[in-house]
Design a protein that fits this description.
- By secondary structure, this protein is of the alpha/beta class.
- Helices cover 34% and strands 22% of the residues.
- Strands 5-4-1-8-9-10-11-12-13 form a 9-stranded mixed β-sheet, with helices on both faces.
- β4, α2 and β5 form a beta-alpha-beta unit.
- The radius of gyration is 18 Å and the shape is globular.
- Pfam families: PfkB (PF00294).
- GO terms for molecular function: kinase activity.
- This is PfkB family carbohydrate kinase.
């Protein structure tokens, strides 16, 4: 690989609780399982690193126990944190409720990861610069990241995230103009465009990007829709038994970035990303993307079967 995935933030800690159902307002349920793991942007960087990419994390991380957990997890995946620990506080926490269908619901308490990235390195045309829509919700961080994306020669990979409607329209337009790859799930794509289907939304989004950009609309078990160079392609997903959808889109983004960095053709890169996401949902937890060897074995088995 000649380039790096530079992740602009933000990694936090996921408190994941499996519940029989979401509690009603004022109600309570007992979780059947509780774990505390690094999450958020960690899911993307771990997926890319496991797929063989060189990965830099340029976002913030705190000086408390949550920051310690994040730094240890990044190091274990071979990911380099380019910023020093932020003495202003600790890393934030996301409470993730996972119901029996595998669907997940989030409540996030932000920390120092929402600050403008102090460790954002200079990038080149060989790099992929990852930007999360969560980062665009914080005015100071949004301003610095949009400016960095506009000035960078790297391929900007934008994942809007579920709070797309909370980002000001003018900011979206600037960010989209700087984007080389837009990867979003079907719900977010519909919110951004008002279109009823993933395919229609993908086409509408492509018309808002520059001519050489690509759109990937992830649609769960249905696979994804890709718009690139004027062509619209539906890419099916492998059939699996999902137990936890948390982190599936992040696995898709991370592996797609790693494959593009390695020079993999677009059609194969998207197929491998979809297979990685399918494998991820068969495992409990947020950062469940497979290693490159696991993904190769899964694809070989699917081809043989």
């Amino acid at each position: 690989m000649t380039g790096r995935l530079v992740h602009s933030g933000q990694v936090l800690v996921d408190l994941v609780m499996r519940v029989p159902a979401l509690p009603p307002p004022g109600g309570d349920v007992l979780a059947t399982d509780t774990t505390m793991l690094p999450g958020g942007g960690f899911n993307v960087v771990a997926a890319a690193a496991r797929a063989g990419a060189e990965v830099l994390y340029a976002g913030g991380h705190g000086t408390g126990p949550h920051g310690d957990l994040v730094r240890a997890a990044l190091a274990a995946e071979g990911v380099t944190a380019t910023a020093p620990p932020d003495p202003g506080g600790d890393t934030g926490v996301c409470v993730t409720l996972v119901d029996p269908s595998g669907e997940r619901t989030f409540v996030t308490g932000s920390g120092v990861e929402t600050a403008p990235p102090a460790g954002l390195p200079a990038t080149t045309a060989d790099d992929v610069l990852y930007v999360s829509g969560y980062s665009l919700l914080v005015p100071d961080k949004a301003a610095s990241l949009v400016a960095a994306a506009e000035e960078s020669s790297a391929t900007v990979l934008l994942d809007p995230g579920p709070l797309v409607t909370d980002v000001p329209d003018a900011l979206w337009e600037r960010m989209l103009a700087a984007t080389g790859v837009l990867s979003t799930n079907a719900r977010e794509a519909r919110l951004l465009t008002g279109e009823p289907t993933a395919a229609c939304a993908a086409g509408a989004l492509a018309r808002r990007l520059r001519d050489d950009a690509a759109v990937v609309v992830r649609d769960g078990a249905a696979g994804c829709v890709v718009v690139r160079d004027g062509a619209v392609d539906a890419v099916p997903a492998p059939v699996v038994d999902a137990v936890d959808t948390n982190g599936a889109g992040d696995a898709h983004c991370g592996v797609l970035a790693a494959e593009l960095l390695s020079g993999t053709a677009w059609s194969e890169a998207v197929a491998r990303a979809g297979a990685a996401a399918a494998l991820a949902v068969t495992r409990y937890g947020p950062a469940t993307a497979p290693t490159r060897a696991e993904l190769d074995a899964f694809l070989a088995g699917a081809a043989a079967g």
